[in-house]
Amino acid sequence: MPATRILSRRRITTLAAVPLLAVVVTSCGYGSDAEKDEKKPAVAAGAKKLSADTVKIGYFPNLTHATALVGIQDGLFQKELGGTKVAPSTFNAGPSEIEALNAGSIDIGFIGPSPAINGYVQTKGKSLRIIGGSASGGVKLVVNPKKIKTLDDLKGKKIATPQLGNTQDVAFLNWISEKGWKVDAQSGKGDVSVVRTDNKITPDAYKAGSIDGAWVPEPTASKLVAEGAKVLLNESDLWPDKQFVITNIIVSQKFLSAHPDVVEAVLRGSVKTNAWINANEDQAKASANEALKTLSGKALPPEVLDPAWESIKVTNDPLASTLQSEADHAVKAGLLEKPDLAGIYDLGPLNKVLKAAGEPEVADAGLGVK
């Protein structure tokens, strides 16, 4: 199986935040911060323990974190870890997950690119490493078809993004710039009015007519479509090979150094989970939605789940070149000081797992450990 494969129906949800100039931005989620997930597979009796008794894994109750949702719920990670217990926690925001990683409350996390960049830069490269990919894509520009019929019609309209400086906000600002239009990044005022709106209330804002469209991740995009909006642009179409990173796997450098066997086992679980998702799409979609219901108290309805699921790819590849591009776009918009990302990746353990599985190795775009 190739390192990245498109699911014919894909899942998605919330996003990561891009770090602002001297501001830590939260990413949007659908659960509460640092909730312990008590519904998890038990360690098999007599299973051999690795070098750690427990591995604490953090993730969001979002479809963009489907590898973690499915892999933890269905016991695929636990199977690879043997007698080492999986202790999962869910988070609502990237910075909260980074804080937990720095404090040792979690060891490994599934997280968006921007909090990973922020965590790495703010600790001067001492906090974490990105050790693998998890998901790509799942962001759309959706609009009111009565007001906007072409991309040029966006001029003068009010378009929502999730948050000042978050991943979608930066992508939209970059797209506006490439159109030759002008917008003040901080205020959102200009040729297009960029309205920063929490994903949870964006559908209501659309119904009320206070916005004309939104550049948002799934499932918010599909929720808007269910309210009559139309997809005008899929952000994947703007990227080489239609791929860009949405979710990475990160690890505490301290934990990686002390327990490389545990890290490798988690990566095996991730690779095998992605393969299972690709081979069992309908079952995987149902499993991810059941996990969402357990974690956040509400499953996604089919009219939202199905198109959202189609929009994302699970991938073992962290798509390192797109991480650099996303950082460059934030710098261009004036929202981020140019970061030094050298050493943010350590893909050695993942490539070892991929090689053993007969799959192609992945690259770090020159940003790996030396």
Number of strands: 13
Gyration radius from CA atoms, angstroms: 19 Å
Give the count of helical stretches: 13
Poorly predicted regions are 1-33
**Helix vs. strand class:** alpha/beta
Percent helix: 25-40%
Multimeric state of these chains?
Answer: single chain
Mean model confidence by pLDDT? 87
Compressed to H and E, one letter per element, the order equals EEEHHEHEHEEEHEHEHEEHHHHEHH
- First-to-last CA distance: 29 Å
Amount of beta strand: 15-25%
The largest beta-sheet arranges its strands as 1-13-6-12-5-3-4-2
Could you say which overall geometry the principal axes of the C-alpha atoms support?
Answer: globular
Largest sheet descriptor: 8 strands, mixed
List the helices and strands and how they pair.
Layout: E1 4-6, E2 35-36, E3 54-59, H1 66-73, H2 76-81, E4 85-90, H3 94-103, E5 108-111, H4 113-122, E6 128-137, E7 139-143, E8 158-161, H5 167-178, E9 193-196, H6 202-208, E10 213-217, H7 220-226, E11 230-234, E12 245-252, H8 253-258, H9 260-279, H10 281-296, H11 302-309, E13 312-315, H12 320-332, H13 348-356
Parallel strand pairs: 3-4, 3-5, 8-9, 8-10
Antiparallel strand pairs: 1-13, 2-4, 5-12, 6-12, 6-13, 7-10, 7-11
Helix pairs in contact: 1-9, 1-10, 3-4, 5-12, 7-11, 9-10, 9-13
Describe the structure.
Strands 1-13-6-12-5-3-4-2 form an eight-stranded mixed beta sheet, sandwiched between helices. The protein has helices spanning 66-73, 76-81, 94-103, 113-122, 167-178, 202-208, 220-226, 253-258, 260-279, 281-296, 302-309, 320-332, 348-356, and strands at residues 4-6, 35-36, 54-59, 85-90, 108-111, 128-137, 139-143, 158-161, 193-196, 213-217, 230-234, 245-252, 312-315. The longest helix has 20 residues, at 260-279. It contains 13 helices and 13 strands. Helix content is 36%, strand content 18%. It is globular, with a radius of gyration of 19 Å. By secondary structure, the protein is of the alpha/beta class. Residues 1-33 have low confidence and may be disordered.
